[in-house]
Amino acid sequence: MDIVQGRNVDESGDVRRESAEVVVIGTGAGGGVYAAELAEAGVDVLMIEEGGYYNSSDFTTKTSQMIKKLYRNAGTTIAIGRPNVIFAEGCCVGGSTVINAGICWRTPKRILKRWNWEHNIDGISPEEVSPCFEKVEQRVHVSPQEDLTFGGDSWVMKEGAERLGYKWMRVRRNHRFCTGTNNCALGCPIDAKQSILITYVPRALAAGARLFSDCRVTRIKHNGQSANSVSCHFTDGNGKKRMALEVSAQHIVVCGGSVQTPNLLLRSKVPDKHKQLGRHLALHPNAKVIGIFDHEIMGWKGAIQGVQITEFMEEGLMFGTTFVPPSLVAMSVPLWGAEADDMMQHLNHMVTAGVLVEDTDSEGRVKAGLGGDATMSYHLGPHDYKQLRRGIAILSEIYFAAGATSVLLPYHNLKKLSSVDELRRIFDPKLKAVDMEVLTVHAMGTAR
Description:
Blueprint lengths: L1 E4 L9 E11 L5 H10 L4 E4 L14 H8 L6 E4 L4 E3 L21 H11 L6 H14 L2 E3 L7 H13 L3 E3 L1 E3 L25 H7 L3 E4 L1 E8 L4 E9 L5 E14 L2 H11 L11 E3 L4 E7 L14 E3 L7 E5 L4 H6 L5 H9 L4 E8 L5 E6 L5 E6 L2 H20 L4 E3 L7 E2 L20 E3 L8
C-alpha cells in the first residue's frame, strides 16, 4: 500500500511532484467511496486528505486529545447568525464517518422526488438509486441496532415514546459486532463502526490507489475550462507546513464536504457562472435537551444512539439520543458556573437527546475567508425556529412521560422545567431564536 503521511515527510525547500489519472480530494463519505470505486475499476487514483491517518489503536477516551486529532478546528467551527450555530466536522482519513454515530439512512423518497421535480435532476428516482443504496449498505454493513447494546438512555426514549403512543424504531447503523463502548464521537476503538476509514479506504488502497494524508490542497490550477493539477503542502499533523507538493491529473474530484468543497473552489477561482458556489447552505439545525431522572441511566454505556422517534419524520422532525463525552455535554447547554457544576453532578442520571429539523425557510452561505479557512453564515428562518421549539417541547414531553424529574433546555433565559405542566413556557413569545443554543453536524447544498 502506498501511503504517505505528512508528519513523516522531511522538511524541505524542494517541491515533490506526482501524477495520477484521478486526484480525489477528501476521504470521507464521498471521497472514500469514489476513490474505491475508481481504483477497483483499474483507474490510477491518488487520495489527498488534509487530516491525519489513524486507526483504532489511536482512539482513546481522552476527549481533548481526540477532538484535536479528528475534528476540524477542534470542533469549534461557528456558522454566524442569530443564533450562531455550532458546527462540527471530521478532519482525518475517513472524514466525519470516523466521528459520527454511524447512523445510515436512505435519502427519503419525498426528497428524491422533490429534487427531481423542483431542480430537474434526472437519474435519482427511488427506483433508480435503490440499487446504489443496497450496494453501499452491504459494504458498510447497515443493520438495526440490537437491543443488547442499547444504553439506558435508549430504553428511556423507547419507554417515553410508547407511553405517548409515538412511533419509534431501532436506529439503522453501519456497524458490525458493536459492543456499546459509546466512543463513537472519538473514533471507534474496536472497529465496530464501519466508517470509510476501515471500509472503502482499505478497498481503494488494496486496488492500487495511493493516499497522502496530512496534506492540504491550497489551489486547483485551471485554465477557466478545465483543471489539470493541484497545489498542496504536507503538514506535520499540527498545521505546520512541510514539503510542497504538485500533482498533475487528468481529472480532479473535490469531496471536501459542503464547507470545504466550496471553500477550495472559491479560493481557486474556479468559474462560477451562476454565482451559486457556497450558497444554499443547509444545516439540519438541532437543539439538545437533557432529562434528569431519579434512577441511574448511565448513558455512557451502550451505543451512542439505539432508537429514534419517527412519529414526526414526515413533518421534518427527528428525535434521537446522543450521549457524548462529559465535556461535550457541558458545552452543549447554556449553563455556567454553579449551574453547570450541578448539572454535571447528575451525569449518571442524565439522558441527552436532540431534535433535528429539516431546513425549510433557513439558509446559509460559505465564503472563502482569510488564511484559507472557510467562513459560514446561517439564517434560522421563523418556520424552522418554530419547528425547533415544538421539537424541544415534544422531547421534554417524552422525558416526563418516562419519569424525568426535570428537563434542562437549550435556552439562555429558560433553562429548566420541573413538570409536564410547564411545557407551555417553551412557547412564551418572549423566547426568541437568538436565545437558543443550536448545534449541527450536517452541512449540505453549497456546490450547485
